[in-house]
Amino acid sequence: MDILKTMKERRSTHTFKKEEVNSEILKQIFTYGSYAPTHYMTEAWKIKLYQSKGRHAFIDAIIKSYQRIGMIKGDDDPKTLRMIDSMKDFLMAIPHHALIYFEKDNDPIRYEEEYASVAAFIQNAQLAAWEYDVGMLWTITPYMHDPQFLASIGLNSDTTKIAAVLQIGYPKKVSRDKGRTPIEQKMEIIKE
Ligand SMILES: Cc1cc2nc3c(=O)[nH]c(=O)nc-3n(C[C@H](O)[C@H](O)[C@H](O)COP(=O)(O)O)c2cc1C
Known about the structure:
CATH topology: NADH Oxidase
Strand order of the largest sheet: 1-2-4-3
Structural class: alpha+beta
Shape: globular
Bound molecules: flavin mononucleotide
């Protein structure tokens, strides 16, 4: 295991094989995630892992949210129904959906600390996953800001923040490396 190599070679996964990832491996992946730095050791990350038949209600809640937001029409026009079916098929082709959330702190500094730490948790998990040949896609989508969506999956939007939904499974194809901007272009060294 070479962490530097993995950091460079990990890619976001956009298409997944049907095969599920063994739950022990998923537990390992998130355990590595949890070694992320966490101020006051709050370990704020929480996970709802949707897989197998557990995906149906989650995906239905996403579609209802898209209809409320106006991204999908609410009518029963054949075109709308086709769009819903293809969205369901697309989401059902992803073996695991891990919704990552945390309890909001009213103090804005604490809130930022929690959010930052949860992001570190996610990246740690993505890197660990890559070591197990498991791919992830880190997603942030509009339904995460829909209070009714949160309610429909048993979360209270007043007290809970969804940080991301991770799409997880074995990659069908590894995405190309888009490269990165040389860090010198992002860095200013102040000596005096
Ligand atoms: C906070 C965050 C949200 C992201 N949301 C999405 C998303 O909704 N859809 C998507 O296709 N990729 C999403 N990505 C993945 C980025 O597009 C991806 O990391 C970037 O294109 C670089 O590709 P790589 O991860 O393969 O190096 C997200 C990444 C981050 C960090």
